[in-house]
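Holo prediction. Input below; ligand is zinc ion.
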Amino acid sequence: MPPTRIKAIILKRTDFRETSVIVSLLTDSIGKITGLMKGVKTPAKKIPPLAYQQGVCIEALVYLKQKGGLELVTKPEVIESFNFQNESANLWKKLVLQVDRFIPPSRFNSNQIFDLLFQAGKIIRELHNYRAFEIVVTERILFLLGVGPFLEKCLVCGTGENLYFFSGKLGGLICSRCQARESTSFKLPEKHIEALRFLHKIPIGHIPVVKYIPEGLYLSLTKCINEIVRYHMAD
Ligand SMILES: [Zn+2]
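Structure of the complex:
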């Protein structure tokens, strides 16, 4: 089979033998794969070390195996280095590791989630509020993975009224009547629900506009996200 050309963000990288590396890749088209870059550190190959660093976006060729597993990745070229300093670097590393943790290696149409992470990397330098960014990007990744947050109607009875409680287990809002039967749910102030809806809809490119998140709101939003992660993401 001919190789497949991919774009991918390197989520994790492990050295393998003297001259090779194993990388976890979020691709733009074929999901998340684990790839072997054989002999990339051999000087004769003239591959810049940046082409196999964590957090970098590359273009490469993959020889896909029918069964999956460790795929052979060749000719990596850097498209975008996402080379940040200090706090930005920490944030980017945290995000890519989080994506690595959330998504097991699997073939799926990963276009949207790749675009999201790529766009996120593009705006890190413009940020005023790292916490807002982290919440929105994490929320968006979870939503694209299909686990919520769902904010339009009660996830138990379907009503659109009195949605004042959140259940991470169910992945979103539930109404005041149904909350009694859902022991893991908790109440959210109406303002926080509005903020959650607002952040859910904001285009990623607009996040730098968010300059400030009050502490109480931050804690609420973090709790919602963490509860979804706790119930739906394998560790
Ligand atoms: Zn209900």
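The chain has a mean pLDDT of 95. That is the main takeaway for now.
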